[in-house]
Amino acid sequence: MNEINHSWVTEFVLLGLSNSKELQPFLFLIFSLLYLAILLGNILIILTVTSDSCLHSPMYFLLANLSFIDICVASFAAPKMIAEFLVEHKTISFDDCLAQIFFVHLFTGSEMVLLVSMAYDRYVAICKPLHYMTIMSRRVCIILVLISWLVGFIHTTSQLAFTVNLPFCGLNQVDSFFCDLPLVTKLACVDTYVVSLLIVADSGFLSMSSFLLLVVSYTVILITVRNRSSASMAKARSTLTAHITVVILFFGPCIFIYVWPFSSYSVDKVLAVFYTIFTPILNPVIYTLRNKEVKAAMSKLKSRYLKPGQVSTVVRNVLFWETK
Predict the structure, then answer these.
(1) Which part of the chain is the G-protein coupled receptors family 1 profile domain (predicted)?
(2) Is residue 306 part of a domain?
(3) Can you tell me the distance from the alpha carbon of 122 to that of 132, in angstroms, rounded to the nearest whole number?
């Protein structure tokens, strides 16, 4: 048999968002601020829900878990992307690349199922209000969250199984800011047509099935709301608007990337930025701006830890110690 010498790939080169050296400092500043906003916004929601007894309900329990997953979605790749705006050679080891693939599908898969759970919560609250607390007990809420993580784990394990044994012996440039599975598999030195189809089928099935469940759920809820008095359903409409907006923002890019076959690399890159950076930052904004209970709880949290005059006192103390 003829032996063929292969130089096995031990690291990948991430081409990032832009090759322009002039843009790198600007992108570093912008995405650093966006990532900081993601952390602060979602941590604020988690602290608000856990500290205010008025928000100890199934809807807000699921919302706090959504904020936690949003932090995870933003954190699996954003810190490395931000750091690499300051370096010329953007590389990632083979093992770290597989880790990114594992975590992106774990977190996004879990978020899809959690959004379905939040839709079910709204369905029970609006369509079966008298049985809401019985159906959506604390035990049920915990089970729903655990199911979302379990489905995410099964999804990412199946996705990683398609990739981990592929031979990479030549090309190693990934045209993205993280190891996106469809782009990585195309670098393998074997025919990956069948593997690519399986990857798209796996992600497409989870995305489309979750999205269809959400469409059916919210359609039933909207019909129920429409048939009731406007006064009693005003709050429900406001909550539903926030939920539906989040669903569209999250599922739109995911479905486009993994289901739509004609997207280009540049379009995929923009959409990847959208669901890994902009969706996690928009979720807390959407839920707080349209929710009076959350805004009231945040005001109480602010008054508890930032009492009038406390900030000015801290500033005066700092200035005093600097002048000594």
Answers:
(1) 41-287
(2) yes
(3) 9
